[in-house]
Amino acid sequence: MKKFIGDNFLLHSKTAVKLYHEYAKDLPIIDYHNHLPPEEIASDKNFENLTKIWLDGDHYKWRAMRANGIDEKYITGDANDFEKFQKWAETVPYTLRNPLYHWTHMELQQPFGIHTLLNKETATKIYEDCSEKLQTEQYSVRNLLRKANVEILCTTDDPIDSLEHHQKIKDSGFEIKVLPTFRADKAMVIEDVETFNIYVAALSKASDVDIIDYASFCQALEKRHDFFHEMGCRLSDHGLDRIYAEDYNEQEVTAIFLKATLKKSLTEIEVFKFKSAVLVFLATLDQEKNWVQQFHLGALRNNNSSMMQKIGADGGYDSIGDVEQAKPLSKFLNKLEEKGKLAKTILYNLNPKDSEVFAAMAGNFNSEAIAGKMQYGAAWWFLDQKDGMEKQMNVLSNFGLLSRFIGMLTDSRSFLSYSRHEYFRRILCNLLGEDVERGELPKDIELLGEIVQDICYYNAKNYFKF
Questions:
Q1: Domain count, the chain
Q2: Is this model's pTM higher than 0.90 or not?
Q3: CB proximity list for 222: less than 8 A, separation 6 or greater
């Protein structure tokens, strides 16, 4: 029987095949945004079994299992690891045309070398074979990264994190660069005054700054920003429903901060002014250190309150939001540009209706000094699939320069997700190949090959300058 994921999977023309195999396939990976736990890289962890590395924490799979009517016991509940895997295996055939079907079989193929389709009949052997391999040295976390040809990866870290695991990785001489990313979302959640005050206390301890007002709060954040820079960090990230760009002054923000520390509830406009001030402050720090700032915008999180109470956040109950993005994003970027404080910026949208909005907005703030300074970022989350990747590249091509695109990332918590870079590279090569076959692009393989290599690797390497 012909294997499902063959050498020319997703490559529908001779040009696409040539571009992928001769130009894209063997390039190293720069994974500039993911959620991998640095402690597991520091300890060079071996996972106990396939469920531990593949299902734990994977809300994509959890959502599919729920849609298939699987009891929560087998998703986030107390069923044993094999029982959970068996229920996932039973679900896989029903994921046809969902990207999970492709990802699942690509991740079994690389790194495990398994070409068998996963279903309830094949589940036991696949589980046993993969779990046995995972317990060997060749399948430790670091060796999985080596097998995937990763050169650099950037984790996602809170300002209060000690980064001790990053230091251990560096001290160990591990040849793959593992760098932190500064994600200060929790420093902005002032609408929940109880949680905010707990965070401020933790920030005070981490920074060794006595936070008594807004000025000392900013001092503490800047001190942690400096520390992250010393540890090799060159990116920040924000996961927000929207950009906040209200007008404010320092007196207002100082009063809002004081009100929150007194645990008094805030009005919506007070919350928005505070978030706006913090965003501008952090963006200014990024520009001064020549960092890249990332904005993941448009998620509506924790929609199912009863399940939030049972299993907590990040349980697979987030969705696409529907708020105004264009005006506040324009106002925010313009304010930074006017001050000469606009750093290199990557914009990711979650609502597909905003794709053209984000791509057009990025083009408003490019600079003659930096090619591709403003990036319309890779297809994200619900858009991170074949159609979404194609649309993102088509929109970028229509509104900007695809040739300056910094390419794909995993945005994943799993060490098996690096096949997403292969997926992206195949889709990119096929997109260009089909244009050639239709006569819409010249059959200049050398030119196209150079652009493919830039998008897959060299643009990111030059953009981030790690």
A1: 2
A2: yes
A3: 285
Q: Report the amino acid identity of residue 57.
A: G
Q: Which residue has the tokens 């990785």?
A: 169
pLDDT averaged over 10-residue windows placed end to end, the chain, 466 residues:
88 98 98 98 98 96 98 98 98 97 98 97 98 98 98 98 98 98 98 98 98 98 98 98 98 98 97 98 98 98 95 93 97 97 98 98 93 97 97 98 98 96 98 98 98 98 95
- Helix (H) or strand (E) holding 384, with range, is none
Sequence letter at residue 155: T
In residues, how long is the chain? Answer: 466
Helix (DSSP H) and strand (DSSP E) numbers for the chain: 20, 10
Rounded to 5 degrees, φ, ψ at 41 are: -75, -40
pLDDT, tens digit, for every residue of 346-378? 999 999 999 999 999 999 999 888 999 999 999
Alpha helices in 213-302 (DSSP H): 214-230, 250-261, 268-288
Position 249 in a domain: yes
Are 347 and 333 spatial neighbours (Cβ–Cβ below 8 Å)?
no
Question: Which of residues 102, 117, 139 is at a domain's end?
Answer: 139
236 vs 158, 183, 202, 382, CA distance in Å?
10, 6, 20, 22
Taking every pair of Cα atoms in the chain, the longest distance, rounded to a whole number of angstroms, is 72
Specify whether 30 is located in the same domain as 52.
Answer: no
Q: What's the half-sphere exposure (Cβ side, CA atoms, 13 Å) at 106?
A: 20
Q: Which residues form the domain of 346?
A: 14-45+150-464
